[in-house]
């Protein structure tokens, strides 16, 4: 395994950052909280799902998600609550700044 590959047994982590308008911030934050709650309650492969708002950045929402593996994340993307989240964000014209997988310390090699 190299520093840029994930172990098959390692959790799959996602960092997602979104920018909203002033008007859509509250409704989109509620939608993010809904997706997080449903993911944690309904998906056995979802290990953690945290909704964050960066200090000093108005109208920005960050999601930090941890899944058992990449397959669990792919399953998440097919759930009704994710579809509602994705459609709602599109309807509110939310800008996706980034969505990227993160490697944990178990992926580091020297």
UniProtKB/TrEMBL annotation:
Residue span(s) of domain ABM: 12-110
PROSITE patterns listed in its UniProt record: ABM
Superkingdom assignment: Bacteria
Record bears the keyword Oxidoreductase: yes
Pfam families: ABM (PF03992)
GO cellular component: cytosol
InterPro entries reported for this sequence: ABM_dom (IPR007138), AI-2_Isomerase_LsrG (IPR050744), Dimeric_a/b-barrel (IPR011008)
Name this polypeptide is given: Antibiotic biosynthesis monooxygenase
Taxonomic classification: Bacteria, Pseudomonadati, Pseudomonadota, Alphaproteobacteria, Acetobacterales
């Amino acid at each position: 395994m190299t520093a840029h590959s994930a172990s098959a047994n390692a959790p799959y982590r996602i960092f997602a950052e979104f920018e909203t308008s002033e008007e859509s911030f509250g409704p989109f934050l509620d939608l993010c909280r809904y997706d997080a709650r449903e993911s944690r309650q309904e998906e056995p492969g979802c290990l953690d799902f945290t909704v964050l708002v960066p200090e000093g950045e108005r109208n920005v929402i960050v999601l930090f998600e941890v899944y058992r593996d990449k397959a669990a994340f792919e399953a998440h993307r097919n759930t009704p609550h994710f579809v509602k989240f994705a459609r709602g964000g599109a309807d509110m014209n939310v800008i996706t700044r980034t969505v990227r997988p993160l490697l944990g310390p178990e992926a580091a090699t020297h």
